Predict the 3D structure of the following.
Amino acid sequence: MTDANPLRRVALLALPWICVVLAWTLLHYSGLVNPVLVPTPAQVARRFWELMSNGKLPIDMLISARRVLIGVVLGTLLAVPTGFVLGWYKNVHGFADPLVNFFRALPPIALIPLVVVYFGIGEAAKVVILFYAAFFSGVIVMYEGISQISPIFIRVARTLGATDGEIFRRVIVPLSLPHILTAVRVELGVVWATLVASELIAAQNGLGAMIQNASSFFQLDLIYLGIICIGLIALGMDLLLRKISQRFLNWQDRISA
């Protein structure tokens, strides 16, 4: 019985991917679309092996992942205190909320011409685009989370004689941690979705640049491969973040139990 549970878990994890590959293969051979427009999984796998063998794909993956991580880290470092201030101080929120929502609604790709003017076409310009996407998505999540923290926790801590420093360390920070981790998860998704746009800026390397170059030469298998790599790396980062969340937020399960 103990052996069956891990096997069942692996089967449940693999089944959706198997269904996707089968549907993809059937679509290629179904005649519903021109087979030239839908490369088979085998063709994409061969291209994957080719680019892994010559070392190009690992470099592109590492470069894109590094850009994403820099954008998310910088965005989080600024979004967390900003979201905290907006959520905790109602007057500040009333003043800044229209500005935050105005800039949040602007698609990062629309800012590329200005970013090129101010930051050039180097690595800094790409990071600025990703930072922009991460910051405003993180601020919204942090604000919504912090604004829902009940003031009763503060009042109870003060009643028990806690100082302002103790309240911040032992009440505010633990209650804010779930929202910080949620903000990072949201930022990762938004930044990966913005990656291709950021790598429009004269990028020679990276998954977004690979997809853009492949589209110029109608290399559909390469486009599929780039999309799959972006999705898998983003999924891996999200799963890692979930594990971290479970590790640091297990106290919530004990409280609810």
Q: What stands out?
A: DSSP finds eleven helices and no strands in the chain. The first helix runs from residue 4 to 30. The two ends are 28 Å apart (CA to CA).
